[in-house]
């Protein structure tokens, strides 16, 4: 399968990062999913850890060592997520995706608490077929960043010999998109060192980093949920040295 391009980005409010890393004291993820596009939940077959512990661990690490604590709340079970009706689409425009936000987003945000909205859908993006996800911020009226994950693209990682592969790909994708939402790779969080892959926009030049522009079979296969942190040292240094 080789490399799959991770995402399509519309990031137009870099100032959001200065709020996330100064006044915010709680962050939660609101997850909705189209019928038959539900995210993987439960535990990994190998190792037995919670699937959503990958996202949770990475978000906890993002806000570690700041001299104050940020409460991070990540759902791990479908009962904590919202099912939305089948949208009957095989392709989506950006505007069609954004139409889902006022309909189904329930949580609001302020300077102390932020909620990112994550929606799992069937089909693919018309403008960039084949991308796994889309992260959008700064569009009038949507509130904090919104992440759309294309379940059909995650399904391409399905493997009989490696039962956890698609679940790992999904969690790695989600963590990557949350990195964008927070402002990683010069999209709000300034670079501490030179590691932006400008050819691929707001991505990291370190191939082993979770903010690299693509997700490869090999990277997913070798990822171990027992060592869930996927951001490279360069991206972690960006965060640690960012004090707006």
UniProtKB/TrEMBL annotation:
It comes from Leptospira johnsonii. GO terms for molecular function: metallopeptidase activity. It comes from the Bacteria. InterPro entries: MetalloPept_cat_dom_sf. This is Peptidase M43 pregnancy-associated plasma-A domain-containing protein.
């Amino acid at each position: 399968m080789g490399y799959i391009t991770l995402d399509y980005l519309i990031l137009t409010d870099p100032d959001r990062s200065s709020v996330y890393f100064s006044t915010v004291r709680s962050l939660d993820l609101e997850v909705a999913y189209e019928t038959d596009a539900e995210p993987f939940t439960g535990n990994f077959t190998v190792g037995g850890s919670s699937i959503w512990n990958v996202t949770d661990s990475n978000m906890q690490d993002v806000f570690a060592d700041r001299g104050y604590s940020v409460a991070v709340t990540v759902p791990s079970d479908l009962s904590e997520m919202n099912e939305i009706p089948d949208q009957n689409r095989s392709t989506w425009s950006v505007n069609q995706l954004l139409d889902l936000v006022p309909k189904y987003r329930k949580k609001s945000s302020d300077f102390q608490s932020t909620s990112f909205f994550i929606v799992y859908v069937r089909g693919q993006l018309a403008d960039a077929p084949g991308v796994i996800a889309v992260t959008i911020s700064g569009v009038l009226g949507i509130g904090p960043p919104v992440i759309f994950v294309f379940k059909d693209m995650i399904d391409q990682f399905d493997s009989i010999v490696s039962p956890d592969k698609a679940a790992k790909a999904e969690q790695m994708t989600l963590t990557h998109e949350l990195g964008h939402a927070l402002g990683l790779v010069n999209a709000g969080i300034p670079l501490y060192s030179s590691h932006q892959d400008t050819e691929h926009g707001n991505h990291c030049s370190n191939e082993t980093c979770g903010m690299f522009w693509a997700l490869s079979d090999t990277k997913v296969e070798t990822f171990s949920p027992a060592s869930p942190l996927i951001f490279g040292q360069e991206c972690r240094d960006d965060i640690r040295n960012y004090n707006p």
